[in-house]
Amino acid sequence: MKLGFGIATNLLIALLAAGAVPGLAADLPPDLAKAARDYDRANVAGDIATLERLFADDYVLVNSDASVEYKQQAIADFRVPGFKIDPYVTTQPVERVWSDGAVIGGIVDLGWTQEGKHQQRLIRVAHVWAKRHGDWKMTYTQVTRVPK
Predict the structure, then answer these.
(1) How many CB atoms lie within 10 A of CB 26?
(2) Whole-structure pTM value
């Protein structure tokens, strides 16, 4: 992957790791809030099975370098020995929820280790979730680098 951290942008990335999800709106449906927490935990833990479950089969990730990845490409970095995403917190949350869809994101100071090198980037991430057959699935992620 060109950006060097797959899902994390997937990823990341992301709402919040390590269990708590500050910034999530109180009115998020409980099942969506749980899916978002599960995603964050899986991202940091490298839990491929959970990421595969949460990503829709047609998942698309647009990285900050404009490269595009699909579900299996986005998960591939987690299969590389030594790849690890640091715990992160999402600030400046953005949340929009509809009956069968949602956009959840914000600013993440994302750190990760890949190929023995630690990297750090400040990113804005937006995850699009869709409720399919009763379960929330992440369908799309857009990552943008935040200028210094």
Answers:
(1) 5
(2) 0.82
